[in-house]
Amino acid sequence: MRVLFVSTPGIGHVFPLVPLAWALRVAGHEVLVATTGSALAVADAGLPVANLADGFDFRAVREQARRDHPELIERLRNTQMTDLSQALFIFSRISKMMADGVVKIADDFRPDLVVHSPMNGAALLVAGRLGVPAVEHGFGFARTAHLHDAMYDSLVEEFAAHGAAGLPEQRISLDVAPPSMLTEPSTGWPTQYVPYNGGGVLADWLRERPARPRIAVTLGTVAVETNGLGPVERIVTLAPKIDAEFVLALGNADLSGLGELPPNVRAVGWAPLGALLETCSGVVHHGGAGTTLTALAAEVPQVVLPSGADRFINAGAVRDRGAGLVATAEDLDVPLLETLLRDDGLRAAGAEVRAEIAAMPSPSSVVPRLAAALG
């Protein structure tokens, strides 16, 4: 098979596709990833990548959307979303910007199958145009396959301009959410979540078990830009009162405003999250899908501080399963962080979910099923 992966231009959208892409390559299939912007970092995973839009700037898209629809953007930031249909207009706008580039890449590559990130109208367009199946690869707890018709309606002119009569006839969804954490049965193919958070040379301290409990603190790749470092400032203030090591894994965020860090706080910039969490007794994070599932796969109790997008959905799933706590930055205090470290119930639920994830069909076992779907 020739398989074209089409990702929305964000690291959190493209990284979950890597394990399946490699499973296909190992099985002898040809793979190409089409994306742009920060998602081009997927090339570091050793995959062939085509840039579908030179100069794409996700931040500029968000700023333009804020100017065009200030009331909608404000609602997205301050509403506890339970359905990503409220964010459709942003993904529709991005899909329109991607469409020409994806069509050109697909015409050159001629895929037999298109695998795509959720809410990716450009991928649906190109699969419909070529008459090949589209496979939506989920990355969290939000349900999005039901939005395909609405995405088509928002891109009907682009579909017509590129000669696509409609959505692809065969649409498959891969669901990485552990079934016990869903509020209703999944309609997708269960697929094991295998963390990919980027590679890196592990520092000596990260290869050793810590002498005392370690808590990771991360805000992902988007939340820190839009919401600042408020939760981190509070944690740094609390850290000297807690017998634990805190690791601030905040990427390229400017931490100069935090001042001199306490002795039990370590700032590391970028670190492979999966490797970091395997050494941790707890994690405080923003509720991004990749961070949430990586923590679940590592059996690490969580304090989730959701802040828009799908993060409230992910946080609710963690809370309802008993694998973590949901809070605001203002809620952060010593008792909350001590609960994160000491609560046996959180650990028991985490162990159950980790076992559940491990028992789900691996990406490698999904590959022959995808091949069979082509007939």
UniProtKB/TrEMBL annotation:
Stretches assigned to the Erythromycin biosynthesis protein CIII-like C-terminal domain: 238-372
Q: What is the phylogenetic placement of the source species in the record?
A: Bacteria, Bacillati, Actinomycetota, Actinomycetes, Pseudonocardiales
Q: What does the sequence similarity comment in the record state about its family?
A: Belongs to the glycosyltransferase 28 family.
Question: Which residue ranges does the record assign to the Erythromycin biosynthesis protein CIII-like N-terminal domain?
Answer: 22-220
- Which InterPro entries does UniProt cross-reference here? EryCIII-like_C (IPR010610), EryCIII-like_N (IPR048284), Glycosyltransferase_28 (IPR050426), UDP_glucos_trans (IPR002213)
Residues spanning the membrane: none
**Keywords in alphabetical order:** Glycosyltransferase, Transferase
What is the name listed in the Swiss-Prot or TrEMBL entry for this protein?
A: DUF1205 domain-containing protein
Q: Name one GO biological process term.
A: antibiotic biosynthetic process
Keyword Amino-acid biosynthesis attached: no
List, alphabetically, the Gene3D superfamilies matched. Answer: Glycogen Phosphorylase B
